[in-house]
Design a protein that fits this description.
single chain; Cyclophilin; 10-stranded antiparallel sheet; 31% strand; globular
């Protein structure tokens, strides 16, 4: 049981909720960049929220299912067809054996997720199946998918249908993902202070073309430290905002290194990481100040929403 990759797309990888507890050994987190969309896709098909799935960046692959499967596609506004049928996002869909999905470009957002009931059967390393492109493990040989690859499917529901069967109910991605609005990112204070304390929050920031899974490179006002100091390698993590000597911040994402010598001028709260994951080169965002209490409330609200969705899906399956 597998899906065959006919065309790989721009950057398609196997990811789960990440590799935790090894940063002190120099092993990064990896995992899905948009944890909200990935969790919703998994919940819709009946998986646990952190199950392995496919993350697609900007343009998706063409894949063929060898067996019937129950799927969901969430995240960026990506075009996807099965034959002549346009498939919707944020819904559960049953596919017949031999179904071929053609993923196109992301019309809004940057990353979409394909979940399959039962998940993907990938050997974990250090407790995770996530692909770490910099370290080269595990996923599928530690790399992005290529044409001709086959990704094994774990044993899951095999629906009895001859054509796609689309569920009537759907998940609402708002307010976590509102692509019509400029992204507002809540920022906790960093350990290094800026010469102009308001500069980080008073200007829009543009996503640079060199951005990737490791971090977003931002351009806008050139920032300066209040007390420049000798660069010392210090711990960093996803969400950390670093300031290189050129004054243009870098906002670290899931594939972030574990240590860095740049100044740490802030930290993007975890509840906003899904929106950060969906930013495309050329788009703008704003930082807004945040307290630890507000960060906790926003995170709890997001997790409570996912829990309510899981309950609703479970009840719908039992009805």
């Amino acid at each position: 049981m597998s899906i065959e990759v006919l065309e790989p797309g721009l950057l398609t990888t196997v990811q789960d909720c990440g590799r935790h507890g090894y940063r002190h050994l120099g092993v990064g987190q990896s995992g899905v960049l948009d944890s909200f969309s990935a969790a919703v896709a998994n919940i819709l098909v009946g998986n646990s929220p952190g199950s392995p799935l496919l993350e697609m960046t900007l343009r998706g692959p063409v894949v063929r299912f060898s067996v019937p499967a129950r799927i969901a596609i969430c995240g960026a506004g990506i075009d996807v067809h099965c034959g002549d049928l346009v498939l919707p996002l944020w819904r559960r869909i049953d596919l017949a054996a031999g179904s071929t999905l053609h993923f196109g470009a992301c019309r809004s957002g940057a990353r979409a997720y394909l979940a399959v009931n039962g998940g993907f059967e990938v050997d974990p390393i250090l407790g995770s199946t996530s692909t770490d492109l910099r370290a080269g493990f595990p996923g599928l040989a530690g790399r992005q998918l290529q044409a001709g690859d086959r990704v094994r499917l774990a044993h899951g529901i095999q629906p009895d249908c001859s054509e796609p069967r689309i569920a009537r109910c759907w998940a609402n991605p708002s307010p976590e993902l509102d692509f019509k609005q400029t992204a507002l990112v809540h920022l906790l204070p960093g350990s290094d202070q800026l010469a102009d304390a308001d500069a980080l929050h008073s200007t829009p920031w543009t996503i640079g073309s060199a951005s990737n899974r490791q971090g977003l490179r931002l351009s806008g006002a050139s920032l300066q430290l209040r007390n420049p100091r000798e660069a010392i390698s210090e711990p960093v993590m996803p969400g950390t905002v670093q300031l290189p000597a050129d004054g243009n911040p870098i906002l670290l994402l899931a594939d972030a290194q574990t240590h860095g010598g740049y100044a740490r001028i802030g930290h993007a709260i975890r509840a906003d990481w899904p929106r950060l994951a969906q930013l495309r080169p050329g788009e703008r965002m704003y930082f807004v100040p945040c307290s630890t209490g507000q960060a906790s409330r926003l995170w709890r609200r997001q997790q409570q929403g996912l829990a309510r969705l899981a309950i609703a899906v479970s009840r719908a399956d039992q009805a």
